[in-house]
Amino acid sequence: MVLPGPLPYGVTICCKPRNPMEILTQELETKKRLLQESNKLLNAQIKAAKDAMDEAQESANDHQGSMEDKFESFRENCQIQRDMYARQLDELITVQSVLRRINATKANQDVSLGAVVITELQNYFIGVSLGEIKLDGESYYAISGMSPVFKAMMGKTAGETFSFRDKTYKILQVF
């Protein structure tokens, strides 16, 4: 059925208006799930770094070469690898401390640590750099507070625009 002219006062075509508390609850649930997924990805990276570090140490300890010089060279290479994985592990633990500072029960009003930013072109989760996270068919890019795109949008609120790589983004929502 098509009505001619404007709709009578109080008549809407859509369903009932959404309750603001319901919207906030859904937004915070999205933020909570993004934080959980970020922690899951980071924990997997931490486990991989620990496992690689342990494996390099075991190789250094277990290798019994026939010639002493070759054994020492192999052992030194294993220790270098172990040290590299130990540095990666330290960096990941530092990154994890950033995630721990995010409060998933707080709605952000501006683009800052812990904010979920919805733009016309992409969605972002401001925390640590983990790449794309998919939730319910939507893509969110987990970016750090040090990234150039974050610096371009830092402090902005819904309705404002920012430019990054010759594109202008309009911020539709921040929570």
Structure, described:
Residues 7-15 have low confidence and may be disordered. This protein has 175 residues and is α+β, with helices and mostly antiparallel strands. It starts with 19 loop residues before the first helix and ends with a strand. The chain is built from three helices and six strands; from the N terminus they run ααββββαββ. α1 (20-62) runs antiparallel to α2 (68-100). 47% of the residues lie in helices and 19% in strands. It has a six-stranded mixed β-sheet with strand order 3-4-2-1-6-5. It has one domain. The radius of gyration is 24 Å and the shape is elongated. The chain has helices at residues 20-62, 68-100, 148-153; strands at 116-119, 123-127, 131-135, 138-144, 161-164, 167-174.
SSE layout and pairings?
Layout: H1 20-62, H2 68-100, E1 116-119, E2 123-127, E3 131-135, E4 138-144, H3 148-153, E5 161-164, E6 167-174
Parallel strand pairs: 2-4
Antiparallel strand pairs: 1-2, 1-6, 3-4, 5-6
Helix pairs in contact: 1-2
